[in-house]
Specification:
By secondary structure, the protein is an alpha+beta fold. The protein has one domain: Alpha-Beta Plaits, CATH 3.30.70.
Length: 85
């Protein structure tokens, strides 16, 4: 198994909007090889957060970068992000 942890920064005050978009477009979606996925707000920076995912194999994670849910998340959440999330 492999765990992927990504940290990202949002525009000030947009955490709730980003979290709603994440749950609407990403959370709970079936992705081959995905064992679990979480979004967590940074306790030291309310505009920062972590995306954590657990995969069966590294190649599953790489394939998921091209999935429909990734492009939907990027489209819905891009107004909130400052960098890559």
């Amino acid at each position: 198994m492999i765990m992927r942890i990504t940290w990202g920064k949002l525009r000030a005050g947009t955490w709730q909007e980003y979290e709603q978009a994440y749950h609407a477009t990403v959370a709970g979606k079936e992705v081959p090889g995905l064992r679990g996925r979480w979004l967590a707000q940074d306790v030291n920076d309310p505009d920062g957060g972590f995306s954590v995912s657990v995969w069966e194999h590294a190649r599953c994670d790489l394939r998921s970068s091209d999935t429909d849910s990734t492009s939907r998340r990027q489209t819905h959440c891009s107004s909130s992000t400052v960098g890559t999330f």
